């Protein structure tokens, strides 16, 4: 009880129209890719062209999580993300989404987690590795779980294991799913940052940072006073979205338009 009473309350964030990044910094935040390597390639081409046209800056790219599952080429998406990481170094940021969490659990060979992984789009991820649909269909769940540690390549698993739960820049906090209302950003639980939905989406109170997130699919970008959602359902809509920020400016790049 005393701990709860003494917990600091988050300070309200800057309103959406006055939120800023540090001077000289430019950020491109990419929404949930979900196995669409084709769309990621298109969006990264747009980002490179946009960044070049706007002139020199300290440019960062933030992936909001859920690189894999549902779409046809999760392995290819992770390969491209590794390329971005190698190219940009510390200016490339990758957030741990709920699908990354389950991917890592399935990679351990835990049968229960493999079963859950397959239910949430992991079948498509598995088939983007070295296994045929016929082999997949003929394996029992126990047999599939036994193959997972070797099937999901160590290079990919090690890369995804290094993803972060939050990135804070200026007045913005980048997370995968959202935040627990009333809790300072540095005190948020990983479970909430990766999985929360209704409690965050329905809350209209200001947070200590303006929250940029994916996880909850909307037909287009969703701008609210306390958050910006950019999961536009790329795997089914063909629209992968990037939020672009510099100083107090905000604009968007999208595929399929």
TrEMBL record:
InterPro entries: Ap4A_hydrolase, Calcineurin-like_PHP, Metallo-depent_PP-like
Residue intervals of the Calcineurin-like phosphoesterase domain: 26-218
Pfam families, per the entry: Metallophos
SUPFAM superfamilies: Metallo-dependent phosphatases
Name this protein carries in UniProt: Serine/threonine protein phosphatase
Species the sequence originates in: Blastomonas fulva
């Amino acid at each position: 009880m005393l701990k709860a009473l003494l917990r600091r309350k988050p300070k309200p964030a800057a309103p959406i129209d006055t939120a800023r990044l540090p001077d000289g910094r430019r950020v491109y935040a990419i929404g949930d890719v979900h196995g669409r390597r084709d769309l990621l390639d298109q969006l990264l081409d747009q980002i490179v062209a946009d960044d070049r046209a706007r002139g020199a800056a300290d440019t960062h790219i933030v992936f909001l999580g859920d690189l894999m599952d549902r779409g046809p080429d999760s392995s290819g998406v992770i390969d491209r993300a590794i390329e971005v990481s190698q190219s940009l170094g510390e200016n490339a940021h990758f957030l741990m989404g709920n699908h990354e969490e389950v991917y890592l659990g399935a990679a351990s060979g835990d049968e229960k987690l493999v079963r859950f992984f397959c239910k949430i789009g992991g079948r498509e991820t598995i088939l983007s590795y070295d296994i045929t649909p016929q082999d997949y269909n003929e394996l029992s769940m126990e047999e599939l779980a036994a193959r997972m540690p070797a099937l999901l390549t160590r290079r990919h698993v090690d890369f995804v294991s290094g993803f972060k739960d939050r990135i804070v820049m200026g007045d913005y906090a980048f997370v995968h799913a959202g935040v627990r209302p009333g809790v300072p950003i540095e005190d948020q639980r990983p479970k909430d940052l990766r999985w929360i939905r209704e409690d965050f989406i329905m809350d209209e109170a200001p947070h200590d940072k303006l929250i940029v997130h994916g996880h909850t699919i909307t037909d287009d970008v969703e701008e609210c006073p306390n958050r910006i959602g950019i999961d536009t359902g790329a795997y089914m809509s063909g629209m992968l979205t990037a939020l672009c920020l510099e100083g107090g400016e905000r604009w968007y790049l999208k595929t399929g338009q």
